[in-house]
């Protein structure tokens, strides 16, 4: 629907359209300037996804949106966010893995930068050269690390269900890094990207339509003891809400949404710590 909210007390439906996406999964939609931007997951979610760019409906001429361009981005584009002047579109490619018929396919997470003038795409890899050991020493969580794969291969009761030899050969640390949500800095020079399953934050510098990863930093653990700065946690499944402190109990934050604000010139990041799990069909990490 195209809805006119000029009179917020009495919104008016100007027109309705159906845009056929062929049954594809859509994950996000944004409007910026005269553009309507839609993130589309590939039929096989581990393949590269797309962003479809339409003309936005204008109040003065509410004609049906027309497709201007389709650009290819990374696997499972989960969030779209244009910069302030609608010249660059940032896309968080989650790169979620899948286990199909014993074959584990797990693409690397990445961020795509789409030039909205010429529709060129620059991909920012999260492979900084850091090893599993270095990332884990920094507190970055890797749900299915190379060591974990080796353990499941050698000792897992269902080791024959997955081709672990092939999975280990294809492994890179970046296959475990999954961008979920992102936000631009106030001057559009940086992107802050939540890696939810990793409970970490990637900072990317952006210049001339290209990006460079500055850092990947862990959010740290949340302390549920009396000195942890919380009101306690309810761990009893009795449908009541009884908060209590739990000495020695800590959890990962695993934030989903992220926002940024400046106070006295200092940027502050705000996160919604949803918590999450990691799934490859039959494999699930809680």
UniProtKB/TrEMBL annotation:
<feature type="domain" description="Choice-of-anchor I">
    <location>
        <begin position="27"/>
        <end position="285"/>
    </location>
</feature>
<dbReference type="InterPro" id="IPR011045">
    <property type="entry name" value="N2O_reductase_N"/>
</dbReference>
<dbReference type="InterPro" id="IPR055188">
    <property type="entry name" value="Choice_anch_I"/>
</dbReference>
<dbReference type="InterPro" id="IPR015943">
    <property type="entry name" value="WD40/YVTN_repeat-like_dom_sf"/>
</dbReference>
<dbReference type="Pfam" id="PF22494">
    <property type="entry name" value="choice_anch_I"/>
</dbReference>
<dbReference type="InterPro" id="IPR052956">
    <property type="entry name" value="Mesenchyme-surface_protein"/>
</dbReference>
<protein>
    <submittedName>
        <fullName>Alkaline phosphatase</fullName>
    </submittedName>
</protein>
């Amino acid at each position: 629907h195209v809805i006119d909210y000029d009179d917020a007390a009495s919104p008016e439906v100007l027109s309705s359209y159906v845009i056929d996406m062929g049954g594809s999964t859509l994950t996000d939609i944004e409007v910026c300037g005269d553009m309507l931007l839609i993130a589309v997951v590939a039929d096989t979610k581990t393949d590269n996804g797309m962003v479809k760019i339409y003309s936005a409906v204008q109040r003065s001429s509410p004609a049906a949106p027309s497709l201007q361009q389709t650009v290819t981005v990374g696997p499972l584009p989960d969030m779209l966010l244009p910069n302030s002047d609608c010249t660059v579109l940032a896309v968080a490619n989650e790169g979620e893995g899948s286990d199909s018929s014993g074959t584990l396919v797990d693409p690397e997470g990445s961020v795509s930068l789409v030039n909205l003038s010429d529709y060129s795409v620059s991909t920012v890899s999260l492979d900084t050269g850091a090893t599993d050991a270095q990332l884990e020493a920094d507190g970055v969580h890797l749900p299915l690390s190379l060591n974990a794969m080796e353990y499941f291969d050698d000792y897992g009761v269902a080791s024959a269900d997955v081709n672990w030899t092939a999975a280990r050969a294809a492994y890179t640390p970046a296959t475990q890094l999954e961008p979920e949500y992102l936000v631009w800095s106030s001057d559009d020079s940086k992107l802050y990207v939540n890696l939810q399953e990793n409970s970490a934050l990637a900072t990317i510098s952006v210049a001339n339509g290209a990006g460079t990863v500055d850092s990947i930093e862990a959010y740290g653990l949340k302390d549920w003891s009396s000195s942890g700065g919380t009101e306690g946690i309810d761990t009893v499944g009795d449908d009541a809400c009884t908060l209590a402190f739990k000495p020695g109990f800590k959890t990962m934050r695993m934030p989903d949404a992220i926002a940024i604000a400046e106070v006295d010139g200092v940027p502050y990041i705000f996160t919604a710590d949803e918590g999450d799990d990691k799934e490859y069909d039959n494999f699930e990490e809680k």
